[in-house]
Design a protein that fits this description.
It contains two helices and eight strands; from the N terminus they run βαββββαβββ. By secondary structure, the chain is an alpha/beta fold.
Length: 126
């Protein structure tokens, strides 16, 4: 089967409620509670994902011994126009690190920090 490199992602958080509110507001997305069958103490809230569409699914995860990190792997969320989501970052408690900028024929990106200290990107073609 041919597929892109990323099939799923976890964003580690310290405060699930705060992180869910932040991402829900910025990305205008809903979450669903899921579980980790190997560890019942893990709290997971997955971005509602339609696996028949392009892109990877993922979740906010609160797990003992693992937390947010600045400078690790970055997830870029595909959006219609990254300026729209970027405009909601600071009012939701996050920080815009690099405002919307052109990346040539690949469109535009914004780099932001969430309420937990994770860096994430926004990517759009307009």
């Amino acid at each position: 089967m041919q597929q892109n490199a990323v099939g799923w992602f976890d964003i580690y958080v310290n405060d699930m409620s705060r992180a869910e509110t932040f991402y829900g507001t910025v990305l205008q997305r809903e979450f669903e509670a899921i579980s980790d069958p190997s560890d019942t103490s893990v709290i997971m809230k997955a971005f509602v994902t339609d696996m028949d569409h392009y892109g990877a699914g993922g979740a906010l995860v609160k797990r003992e011994g693992v937390g947010p990190v600045t400078g690790g792997t970055m997830v870029y969320f595909g959006v219609e126009d990254c300026a729209a989501e970027e405009s909601r970052v600071e009012e939701s408690g996050g920080k815009v690190i690099n405002p919307k900028m052109s990346i040539g024929k690949y469109g535009f990106v914004s780099v932001c920090m969430d309420t937990e200290g994770n860096l994430f990107g926004l990517s759009s073609f307009q």
